[in-house]
Amino acid sequence: MVEKQVKVWFLRGLKQWNKSSNNRKMPWKGEKDPYKIWLSEIILQQTRVEQGWDYYLRFIQTYPTVQSLSQASDNEVFKLWEGLGYYSRCRNLLHTARVVANQRKGKFPDTQEGLLSLKGIGNYTAAAIGSFAFGLPLAVVDGNVHRVLSRVLGIREPVDTAKGKKRMEELAESLLDKQNPAQHNQAMMDLGATVCLPRNPNCTQCPFSKKCIACTTGTVGDFPVKSKKINVRHRFFYYLMLEYRNRLLVRQRENGDVWSQLHEFILKETDEPKELEEINRASFWGMRYAKNDWQIMDQSEPIVHVLSHQRINARIIHVRIKHPLQLKGYTWMSKEQIDQLAFPRLITRYRQSR
DNA sequence: AATACGGGGCG
DNA sequence: CGCCCAGTATT
């Protein structure tokens, strides 16, 4: 995909930079244990290094081996993942840990094909584990690599299409230093993360500043090209923290929507905003309670919770009742039980503020 | 091929 | 406010 000469100066520049100027340090850098590499890679999918850092440390401290993780309960692991987002990663993490521990004697596959067969491992993660743990000649292609390659080589093809991604993978592979895939991949990502930044890149410190198409033409801001714009859905969530004798009614969310498998209180979703006065009434929640049996303990301000594809406008009210009820799908739980479970940030924030 | 999936940081 | 982040699975 790239000319021989290009590969020569590219690898020379990358190695030189990596040796002399790359001082990036991370807990998992240089790690060889496939389990720890896998764990770090899953945590870091679409997640900034600083955000995942402490989660990684807590996970390896709590679960030092894939066996220990495989034996943990779902709730315990989700609680440790709480706040990190993209919770299907957590579900897949558990699934794969159990597959590796129970069906593969604790050994991760050491081939690209084998790695890709595991839930939660795609092209990027397979290349990362393959190269870092097993020295396989696989080139990682993540957001950093998109940036570095599109800018240096002046690739105008959008990187967020199937074709564009394929192109990036071919380019990355053709530039891979097969003598040392692990070091090469790490250097590519480090360069993207510390020099070839999304905004205001430090081109003066870049080994490719004289060769980079984007840099030499003053167009670094134009790369990488992306074609899609995301549509944001607006939703209105009203939560009822129903309390009876120090217990709250809680349920676990199903798959197929945001926050799958996390827990929450009684939820009423509406198409439009509702007045506080309306949600204060038991009838809004489909319940019949007399005034003196429906004690409003607290009401949150409107909470705007912004996700990539959704803007959730929420409000939480806390009501104490004197006569209990049963609600299908919900369970009465003590506050101690609730503290063991993972909730959306929107809810944990509210509870911590009270 | 397009879309859903979190949460936080930054200009 | 919009973009981006060590992407993947599903439709």
Which key phrases capture this entry?
354 residues, alpha+beta, Endonuclease III, domain 1, Nucleoside Triphosphate Pyrophosphohydrolase, eight-stranded mixed sheet, 15 helices, 8 strands, 42% helix, elongated, DNA-binding
Protein structure class: alpha+beta
Give the overall form: elongated
At CATH level 3, the topology of the largest domain is: Endonuclease III, domain 1
Corresponding CATH architecture of the largest domain? Orthogonal Bundle
Strand fraction equals 5-15%
The tally of structural domains comes to 2
What is the arithmetic mean of pLDDT? 96
Q: What is the top-level CATH class of the largest domain?
A: Mainly Alpha
Oligomer: single chain
Instruction: Describe the largest sheet.
Output: 8 strands, mixed
Low-confidence stretches: none
Query: CATH-wise, what's the superfamily of the largest domain?
Result: Hypothetical protein, domain 2
**H/E topology pattern:** HHHHHHHHHHHHEEEEHEEEEHH
Number of strands: 8
Helix-residue proportion? 40-55%
Span of the ends, CA to CA: 58 Å
Round the Cα radius of gyration to an integer and report it: 25 Å
Total number of helical segments?
Answer: 15
